[in-house]
Amino acid sequence: MKRLYFTLCFLLTLSGFTSLQAQSDCLALKVEHTTATAGETVCADVMVENFTSMLGMQFSMRWDPQVLSVTGVNNMNLSDLSQTNFSFPATAPQYPDRLRVVWFDQSTNSVDVPDNTVIFSVCFDVVGEVGTSSPILFDDTPTDIEFAARIGGEIDTKAARLHSGSVSVGFPAPVVPQIDIESCPVADVCSEVPPPGLSPIVSMGTPPYNYAWTGPNLFSSSELEISELVPGNYLLQVQDANLATSSVLFHVNDQSHTKLVFSDVLVNHPNDCQENSDGSISFTMRNGSGSYSYSWNDGSESRDRSGLGGGIYTVTATDMLLGCSVVRSFTLVPENDDQLFQFADITDVSCGTTNTGAIRLVIGGEFEGTTVSWNTGATGPEITGLATGNYSATVTNSGGCTFEWSGKVEVSDEVEFTGEVGYTDCEQSSGFINLNMPGDPSDFTYAWSTGEQTQNLSGLSFGAYRVTVTNTASGCTGYRHFYIKDEAFLTGSNWECTVVDEQTVFAKVYTVVWGGGTPPYTFNWSNGDSMTDELIGFTTISLPGTVIVTITDSKGCVTVAEPVTPDCTGGSESSFSTASSYNCIEDENGQQSQAEITYRVWNGGTPPYTFAWSNGLTETADQQSTIIAPADAIQSYTVTVTDQFGQTHISKKIIPVCQIDGTPLHMDIGDATVDAPGESVCVPITVENFTGIAGLQFTISWDPSQLVIDDITSDLLPNFGTHNYNLGNYASGNYPGTATFSWIDVNTQGVDLPDNSPMLEVCFTSIGDAPQTEVILSNHPTIIEASTITSQVIPVVTSGGTISIQNGISKNVWPGDTDNNGLVDHFDLLNIGLAFGENGYPRPDGNLNWEAQFGVPWNQQTPNTQTDYRHIDTDGNGTINAIDTLALALNYRLFNENWDGEDGYTQRETLPESARTTGTPIFVDTYAVQEGDMPVFNILLGDEASSESTVYGLAFSINYDPLAIVPGSLQLSFDNSWIGQEEQDMLTFYRVDTQAHRIHVAMTRTDGVDITGKGAIAQLLVTIEDVIFRSDNYDIPISIENARLITAAEEAVPVAERSSVITVSTTGTIDPALDQQIRVYPVPARDVLFLKTPQIHIESIELYDLEGRRLQRWTGSPDRLPLTDLPQGTYALRLITAQGVAVRRVVLLH
Question: How far does the signal peptide extend, from start to end residue (predicted)?
Answer without folding.
Answer: 1-22
